Protein 1
Amino acid sequence: MKPLDETTVLDALRQVVDPELNCNLVDLGLVYSTEIRDGHVRVVMTLTTAGCPMHESLVEGVRTALRALDGVREVTVEVVWDPPWSPAMMTPEGRARLGLA
């Protein structure tokens, strides 16, 4: 059993892919922070645009991915718009995946 820590949470969130960009949320730079406390995981994230048609699907994907982890009892996802997302927030892996490296 892997410990429930930030690395484990981020690895799980890499399984959630934005279907429009075909890149995971972590490498897109959409995950701003994670907090783990007593089996409760809180994720603060954004989306590429405020009108993203995949909003609910991506948030539910985050919940599903995290609920599958050992030790997770509750998941809270907070979508924020400040700071606004920009391609500069992407990881080098995300930029390479989208041909922006």
Protein 2
Amino acid sequence: MPLGDPHGGDFEYTDEGLPKNITAVRIPTGDLDTSIGFYSDLLGMEVVDRKDAHAVLRREDAVILLVVSSHTGVDTGFYIGVDDPYALHRRLIDEGVVFMVDPEMGPIGVYTSFRDTDGNVIRAVDKHAVESFF
């Protein structure tokens, strides 16, 4: 229930304060160094902050927060946007990455899914197909 203006006037909500995008995603890891290696070496992400229990990695608009946790191997539920899911698949297969789904057409374009070094499921989708929705 809106509180309105505390001085008794009418109040009109705008879209201010509503979500604009997903700023970052949190991924659990049992071994921060190994995870940083996976995301930086294989996915080209840059470490922009590092502490004992977490690290922040970035590549273009993608930001990942790796957090040390005893609960890993989760389905993250998110998709990273890539130029070509087939090229990503080839690249990561050559590095021994385990894939859950080979590239195929999904509801928002061609996607694939794979496991990181902690067994977390990560998906990648053709960002151009997603952009065409908007």
Protein 3
Amino acid sequence: MVISQADWEAMVAHAQEDAPNECCGYARLSDGRVDEVFRAKNLRASPYGYELDPQALLAANDLDDEGHGVAIYHSHPRSAAEPSQTDINLAHYPHWHYLIVSLAGEPQVRAWRIADGRVEEEDIVVE
């Protein structure tokens, strides 16, 4: 996956602004490249989990229906950018990408594919 420096910074800024709670949002992809990042509201408003607001989830599904790639992002304010068991359980879209922004130490963004409980990391290239 390729992401611009500006979009990477936008996700990190969202995570920092919503800390200590987790933030969440989604991104539109074309040919493995992030085209645009969209903030969403975390309905849980919690440092321990996220729930994308219904409008954001519908918009992400619309992007999918239109043939775009979709990535869901959320933050881990105090832990590594690795999917928790809760993240794995909530990953209902096996063809979507899942980005996690960690604020534990220097900000880090990692990408994952999660399908049927299997977790595989994907490379991210920041340009």
Protein 4
Amino acid sequence: MSESRWTTSNKAVFNIGYHLIWCPKYRRKVLTGAVETELRRLLTEKAQGIGVTLVSLEVMPDHVHLFVKAPPTLAPHFIVQQLKGATSRHLRQIFPQLRSRIPTLWTRSYYCESVGHISETTVRQYIEDQKNQ
């Protein structure tokens, strides 16, 4: 069975992807070893729980990269809030050294870029060409 580029619901057909990046507080290199392994597990579990498909995940010692596919009913801010909140709470409970080294696990900020199959230029051209038909 080939994987479709689109996802469907009873009211929409969509293909929404986000590249998300965030860092530990003070960009500390704490995402290694057992912390990295547990973070991967928690992110995968939480993404499934909120209805987001985790397409790609890379944990670096001082930041996290994710590529997620989401339904149009979930805002990027909500997705990040859920993923950061759940992982921070669990990791700080399991690994006490994270509580002693930094006041909170994650910074308040994050990076988000929408990712699609069709480029911005193509979409603009398509919309402009609609007038001429």
